[in-house]
């Protein structure tokens, strides 16, 4: 299976700053079928980005995804208080779909 | 706007079968575009894709669970279900249903999740 590795495990930042989260796959992600999710405590994950760089409907444009092959990045251009959460990447190009272990974005 | 809601027992005994249903509202479960899947999250841990089904009857399972999992899609009830046999404490988790597109392994829209505890 494709192993997804996210870094860093925890990122401490302040509102207004830029945050960069990384996701690396153990092999090339088919068709760049890579998604990013945001999860807050007690909630289901919410889709932010699909196909590596496409924002889902209603997602603010401060969220952007980039990358291809094995290396992908989620960038939040200017952090808002509601952005502090856990972020997961998932590859959905090959069976089984696999998630990274998550990056916790916390307030510094 | 599509909404999904999981339902089923919150407590299952070891060696028994965990059975959950996801009821879909705001959209028809029929239509060839979508896959209907399940994901779980043990308390305080990460996410694991369990499998998915399609209205055609096709199913796709995580090899790590394949021998114990059955997913079925019922278009007449606008529901899909998960059965996980021979459960152990290691199957205790928050179980989410989800709708995906593009591939059977996609998980775009999620239900709120339901906690299932395996204990005697």
Based on the model shown, name its key terms.
heterodimer, A: 108 residues, mainly beta, 7-stranded mixed sheet, 4-stranded antiparallel sheet, 11 strands, 0% helix, globular, B: 120 residues
Describe the protein in words.
The complex is a heterodimer of chains A (108) and B (120). Chain A is globular and about 35 Å long. Chain A is built from no helices and eleven strands. Chain A is mainly beta. In chain A, strands 2, 4, 5, 6, 9, 10 and 11 form a seven-stranded mixed β-sheet that branches. A four-stranded antiparallel β-sheet of chain A has the order 1-3-8-7, with no helix packed on it. Chain A has strands spanning 4-7, 10-13, 19-25, 34-39, 46-50, 54-55, 63-68, 71-76, 86-91, 98-99, 103-107. Chain A is 0% helix and 49% strand. Chain B is mostly beta strands and 120 residues long. Helix content of chain B is 0%, strand content 50%. Chain B contains no helices and eleven strands. In chain B, the strands form two sheets. In chain B, strands 2, 4, 5, 6, 9, 10 and 11 form a seven-stranded mixed β-sheet that branches. In chain B, strand 4 and strand 5 (48-53) form a beta hairpin. Chain B is globular and about 40 Å long. Chain B starts with a strand and ends with a strand. Chain A binds chain B through residues 1, 33, 35, 43-47, 50-51, 56, 88, 90-102, and chain B through 46-49, 51, 60-64, 96, 100, 102-113.
Q: Which outline of chain B best applies?
A: globular
Count of DSSP strands of chain B: 11
DSSP helix fraction of chain B = under 10%
**Rg of chain A, Å, rounded:** 13 Å
What fraction strand of chain A? over 45%
Largest protein-protein interface: A-B, 25 and 24 residues
Largest sheet properties of chain A: 7 strands, mixed
Helical residue percent band of chain A: under 10%
Poorly predicted ranges of chain A: none
Q: Could you list the spans of chain B in which at least 5 consecutive residues all have pLDDT below 50?
A: none
- How far apart the termini of chain B lie comes to 39 Å
Radius of gyration of chain B: 13 Å
* Count of alpha and pi helical runs of chain B: 0
Oligomerization state of this entry? heterodimer
């Amino acid at each position: 299976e494709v192993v997804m590795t996210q870094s860093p495990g925890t990122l401490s930042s302040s509102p207004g700053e830029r945050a960069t989260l990384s996701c690396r796959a153990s092999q090339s992600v088919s068709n760049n079928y890579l998604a990013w999710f945001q999860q807050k405590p007690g909630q289901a994950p919410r889709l932010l980005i699909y196909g590596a760089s496409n924002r889902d409907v209603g997602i603010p444009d401060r969220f952007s995804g980039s990358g291809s092959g094995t290396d992908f990045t989620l960038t939040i251009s200017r952090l808002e208080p509601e952005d502090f959460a856990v972020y997961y990447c998932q590859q959905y190009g090959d069976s089984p779909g696999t998630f990274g272990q998550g990056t916790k974005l916390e307030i510094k | 706007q599509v909404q999904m809601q999981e339902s089923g027992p919150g407590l299952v005994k070891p060696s028994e079968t965990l059975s959950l249903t996801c009821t879909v509202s705001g959209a028809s479960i029929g239509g060839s575009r979508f896959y209907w899947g399940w994901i779980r999250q043990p308390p305080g841990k990460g996410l694991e894709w369990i499998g998915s089904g399609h209205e055609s009857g096709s199913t796709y399972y995580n090899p790590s669970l394949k021998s114990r999992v059955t997913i079925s899609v019922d278009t007449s009830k606008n529901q899909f279900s998960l059965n996980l046999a021979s459960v152990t404490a290691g199957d205790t988790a928050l179980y989410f249903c989800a709708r995906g597109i593009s591939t059977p392994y996609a998980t775009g829209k999620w239900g709120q999740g339901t906690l299932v505890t395996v204990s005697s």
